[in-house]
Amino acid sequence: MSAHLNQSRRRFLSQSALGLFACASMPGLLHAMEGMGDMPRTKPNLANPNFNPDVEFDLHCRNTSISILPGATTQVQQYSANLIKGPKDTLTDIPGSYLGPIIRLQKGQKVRIRLHNHLAEPTITHWHGLHVPANMDGHPVYVIDPGVKFVYEFEVLNRAGMNIYHPHPHDATAKQVYHGLAGALLVNDEEEAALGLPSGAYEIPIVIQDRLFSAQNQLIYARNMHDRMTGFYGDKILVNGRPDFKLDVESRAYRLRVLNGSTARIYKLAWDDGSPITIIGVDGGLLEKPETKPYVMLAPGERLDVWADFSGRKAGSELVMRSKPFSGVLPHMMGGGMGGGMGGMMHANALPVGSDYPIFTVRVTKHVSDSPTLPTQLSKITRYQLQDTANPHNPVPISISESPMAMLLNGRPYAYNDVQAIEKIPVNSIQLIEISHAHGGHGDSAKQATAEQADEKPSQGMRHGMMGGMGMGGMGRMGGMSGGGMGGMGMMMTMAHPIHLHGQSYQIFSRKIDKGTQADYDTVSEGFINNGWKDTVLVMPGETVRIIKPFQDFKGLFMYHCHNLEHEDMGMMRDFLVE
Ligand code: C2O
Ligand code: CU
Ligand code: CU
User: Which ligand does the CA of 499 lie closest to?
Assistant: First the structure.
């Protein structure tokens, strides 16, 4: 944590009545929060002379500037790469974009990547979605200083799918991603190749991000604690790094590889003419069968493989992909005092989350008579059953708690070397995991499970339970005591969180929604794809999501965190120790 943030966090605490409560009763937690910046360093990995790569490239990250809006160029941070060994199509630059090159890998390839840090700050790169050894995963303990290099070596074990590469330094992930450090990493395999899906000029990456620009065309980032609490939202939508993105197409089927690269913004994607949207894949690759939806939700870190068939459309016609209205993902902080102030801050955004706005425009520029047809069967996926798991009766909890001071998982902020009993996972096991909210009556079972499985002395269990409940329990009590603004804000602090787990993809086993939040839930729930392999799942307020995840092959620390990257940086991140 930077000294600056530390200071603003203290100021925030001391200004609020809540701060008194928190300081009086949560010294351990505050101590942990202040220690968040104390990540030890592990020596950068060097090349192993016995590793014989099929693909090898340099990956650079540096400060640069690029023209995004008319007028002055914008200072950004950018990945660039140069191929040393391997197929020519391994790296493809996106012209005019701050995004890193598209990396294409084949299942089974051995890959060596030399990451060079030319920034003025530490960084490390994570391969979001890839199943790689713990020391190749870009864990923040591996951050490298400016001028230093880190060598990754791994074999591509994943099935075909769209993954993401992005920085993962603790407390600075959001800022670096926001300033441009991110890219798409596509894996291909034989199962997918046999389908003959649209490729080449007919397979289009669509990376959706929101940004806020100053009058001088410079990126503005999180200015205060509130921006971090809710997540930071820009007012301009960029696709592949460009504003007002237009895609010129022929009247035939396309494959759109869509990725939400925003730090916090959640989208509800739909075609503006009311045609349904056809999904053929999600985070971890192809579905078994295509799914047709009126709209589809896309939270930060999630991916969608969209079959977009423009055949039958006239040359000259246009179609717009929009984000449609929905509610319930942000805290409603209305009312007096601080609550009003925060509500005001959030609603000042010219592009409110959950409003109706365009993402990009498709222009049919050429009529063609031929188009590939949508396969009815895309892949084979064996659904996990409860009895496949090591723990059908006591799910591993991921209990979410949120408050203005801290975003916690299982009652704790991020700290290195702080693995709790419930966070230890036997290697080569398949685990049932329950993601729930720790407050407001939700997630009680998870909290119990936390205490039980923690296998700790009751006093310690109590302490963790209390810290877990602190987010809302504490605030609720404050509200009751003081009435008015704080209470109102506290009561409504709950929000949606895209929960991401490193390592292998998982399956969504069940979703359960609390009745109190059903109305909001109804505005998004038809847009969830619950089949297929996921690594990031949007958990709505009042929702409990059970997932089944394999932890095969690799021991070591694998992170789980909220992919609202501001939340991640605020500490809503933990490690599983696979052993
Ligand atoms: Cu895309 Cu640990 O994150
Ligand atoms: Cu990841
Ligand atoms: Cu979150």
Answer: 3
Atom of ligand 1 nearest to the CA of 559: 2
| Ligand 1 interacting residues, C-beta cut-off 6 A | 126, 128, 164, 166, 168, 301, 500, 502, 559, 561, 563
CB atoms within 10 A of CB 65: 14
Residue nearest to atom 3 of ligand 1 (CA): 128
Read off φ and ψ for residue 33, nearest 5 degrees.
Answer: -65, -40
Whether 55-193 shares its CATH topology with 200-366 is answered yes
**Class (C level, CATH) for 381-578:** mainly beta
Angle between the 17-25 and 475-482 helix axes, to the nearest 10 degrees? 130
Please state, for a pLDDT cut of 90, what percent of the chain lies above it: 76
Confidence of residue 207 (pLDDT cuts 50, 70, 90): very high
- Centre of ligand 2 to C-alpha 531, Å, is 20
Cα 92 to middle of ligand 1, angstroms = 22
Cα distance between residue 142 and residue 131, in whole Å: 17
Whole-number Å distance, alpha carbon 262 to ligand 1 midpoint, is 12
Rounded distance between C-alpha atoms, residue 470 and residue 443, angstroms:
13
How confident is the model over 384-429, as pLDDT tens digits?
A: 999 999 999 999 999 999 877 778 999 999 999 999 999 999 999 9
Greater model confidence, 21 or 515 = 515
Fold entry, domain 55-193: Immunoglobulin-like (2.60.40)
Per-residue confidence (pLDDT) for residue 461, from 0 to 100:
32
Mean pLDDT of the chain: 86
CATH of domain 200-366: 2.60.40.420
Return residues with CB closer than 5 A to ligand 3 (ion).
497, 562, 564, 567
Q: Give Cβ neighbours of residue 346 (< 8 Å, ≥ 6 apart).
A: 226, 230, 330, 333
pLDDT score at 358: 98
Measured by CA distance, the residue closest to atom 1 of ligand 1 is 128
Q: Where are the domains of the chain?
A: 55-193, 200-366, 381-578
CA 137 / ligand 2 centre spacing (Å): 8
CA of 152 to the centre of ligand 1 (A): 17
| Ligand showing the shortest atom-to-Cα distance for residue 164 | 1
Left if phi > 0, otherwise alpha if psi is -120 to 50, otherwise beta: which for 127?
beta
3-state SS, one letter per residue, for 534-546: ECEEEECCCEEEE
Q: Which residues pair with 407 in a beta bridge?
A: 402
pLDDT band at residue 468 under the 50/70/90 scheme: very low
State the pLDDT at residue 493.
67
Could you tell me the pTM of the whole model?
0.87
Ligand nearest to the CA of 573: 1
